[in-house]
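Entries read sequence, tokenised fold; example below:

***
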Amino acid sequence: MVDRMPWPPPANAWWAQEARRLHEAERVVGEVALLSRRRRGVTLEDAYRVQQYGVALRMQQDAQVVGHKVGLTSQAMQRQVGISEPDSGVLLDTMAVVNGGTVALDRLRAPRVEAEIAFIIGDQDTNGAQGGARDGGRGGSVPGVAGVCLALEVIDSRFELDQITLADSVADNAGCARFVLGDVRPAAGLDLRGEEITLTVAGRAVERGRGEAILGDPFRSLVWLTRRLADLGLPLRPGQVVLAGAVHASVPLRRGQTVAAWSAHLGRVALDAA
């Protein structure tokens, strides 16, 4: 489901300026200096509002919000970028690639790929494991889940990763560039914590990880995201996609590669890089 809720956030000239700077860098496949270096004391509130302005710029060009991503949920990813807590970004329909489809690398600056677990949000008043919100002992309310699938996320950045901060990552939409979803399965009865996912490049296994790498339980990503979006006044909506996070450190994506992820209960998802 696309999100037609009001954007952008409350007016602020600096937030808008930084969003335009990042948007232009994305357009020309360029790089900008770290936000945290150019403005001392930048807050997460600032960063999420810059992100929102960036989404608004894309919506002005007819992009639509189709979901959200949670990033930096595994220790492997946190170690890789030197950030010790999660962040979130917005998924747009212009980022979606069909399963087995092609990702054009000429529009990306330094692409990397991750295997993830993704949720499809269901009706919030539906009962049962596939439906309405529940706690499940995970420390908060879990939004209704209509289904679950494997996903590949291609991340990119307008910033160099050296000395990047959480605020930088958030402002740059948590690095989300493209995403691919596998076949959606019912969530009921699946042990997502124990699900082992293998990432292959050209048919060779290069990374493995279990669902528990995602905050100990992928459903905790939904709890975290629900709280984060509530702070911004943005609800999760039925039909939206949530990328819960990677189960391993990201891998460079290069032209000519076929990248796939598979697991015993969630099937296979793949992309070609060109």
